[in-house]
Amino acid sequence: MSSRIHMALAGAGLALLLASCSSLAPTVMTGGNGATPVQATGDESEDDVIGRREHPRILATYGGIYSDRQAEIAVARIVGRLLAAADQPNQKFTVTLLDTADVNAFALPGGYVYVTRGLLALASDTSELAAVLAHEIAHVTLRHARARTNRARTNEIVDKVVTGVFGADLETDQTANRSRVSMAAFSQQQELAADKEGIMIAGRAGYDPHAAARFLGAMGRFAKFSAGDAGQEADFLSSHPSTPDRIQKAVETARGAFGAPGLGEADREAYLNGIDGITFGDSPAHGAIAGRSYINPKLKFTFSVPAGYSLQMSKGAVVGVAGQGEAVRFDSAEVPASMGLEDYLKSGWIAGLQPATVKREKTNGFDMASGIAVTPQWHFRVAVVRNEGQVFRFIFAAKDDTADFRKAADATLKSFRATTSKDLAKVRQLAVRTVVATSGDTADTLAARMAGMSRGKDLFYILNNLYPGDPVTAGARYKIVAVE
């Protein structure tokens, strides 16, 4: 039941993982929000216009630009080599590092390539990141991104899903935008073609051509690990398919074109230097989960859900699921400053809203409006709150409109307040760090250093492409996740 509710609230229009990849190039976006007015010029192709138009939406969806000078330099160097090997010296590429824990990478028309810091944390060496970037460059050079965009234009499934569940305004609602991105994923045939071409590009650039198969395996392991969070495995695998058959094809391509494993540059040491210290997991700048509370250090607000709810961050939203078939979703919306909160509630973004129930109120100093919505299968309590010029939405859903459901929704809304120093002290910052193995270490002894984290030992094995009991090399460095 909980997974179905999660899909109805957090999934219908929010499965955002685009294509299975990442991309980089001469221009690496850093800082700012990257948003620019989209006006075609005489020198721009339609691809350029599409990419520049969609770029701000990608940033809004994936937490904005992630700034880390070491990682940016590492990515730029790799891309330069790959472009030369791809015989694309004049192709314009704009590579952006995204501030999200999602393990993802993708490309848009016009040479816009994106890689998440979550993917940087999962890769084990330079050749694995190069494999991902080569894959994305291949998507662009093979014009897959343009074909994907054309297919999305004619796809009406997303619009029907979004309007059916949310009653969304398809031009302005973020849920609709995210759904379009999801439905624009590359096809399986395109992924396999980009795998093959990407391996050829990376191999010609001097990188280990077998790195693609290794990283596909790591993604598969991470997908299973992430299945502990409702809906994550399905979302991840839908955009990053890493089936045994795909891995085998990658191995065959590398062997046929370049030979057995052991050839090419891996450059693990330089890679670990480049990612040392990057943020791991959810960024505190976007908010953090502490028990049953969500805390936003940047905007300085917090709220709590009642006992029985479990909170998690999910694709730019906070989702809570209770065992009795109830759920809550908290996210943000683009609302003009001139629009009142009551008017926004009535603007059509939530299906089944009963206008007579909409009311304006003040909660702990914050302007808020709330109302009730009913559809054939769901009862909703909805509320919107304005803080620092931004509008945030609560959507509570239940199969049955029970007194306990109403009480839980009211308690959550009343808990919305400004943070205190005590609240902010609960926010943990996680970062990728490295440790050096000694002569007596094994994978198990190194993994024990992450025993303080939930499922930390399992995560250590995946991040380092190891298994329990594996030997490690004395003097070699291995990734851990540290609390800072």
Q: Could you walk me through the main structural features you see in this protein, from its secondary elements to its overall organization?
A:
There is one protein chain. The chain has helices at residues 2-11, 46-61, 69-85, 117-122, 126-141, 144-153, 157-166, 174-183, 188-204, 211-226, 232-239, 244-257, 268-275, 341-345, 403-414, 421-424, 443-447, 456-463; strands at 27-29, 94-98, 105-108, 112-116, 288-290, 293-296, 301-304, 309-314, 317-322, 326-333, 359-363, 366-374, 379-387, 390-398, 417-418, 430-436, 477-483. The protein is of the alpha+beta class and 484 residues long. The protein folds into three domains: 2-275, no CATH class; 287-424, 3-Layer(aba) Sandwich (Protein Transport Mog1p, Chain A); 430-483, LysM domain (Membrane-bound Lytic Murein Transglycosylase D, Chain A). The protein is globular, with a radius of gyration of 23 Å. The protein starts with a helix and ends with a strand. The model is unreliable at 1-42, 150-173, 178-184 and 229-240 (pLDDT under 50).
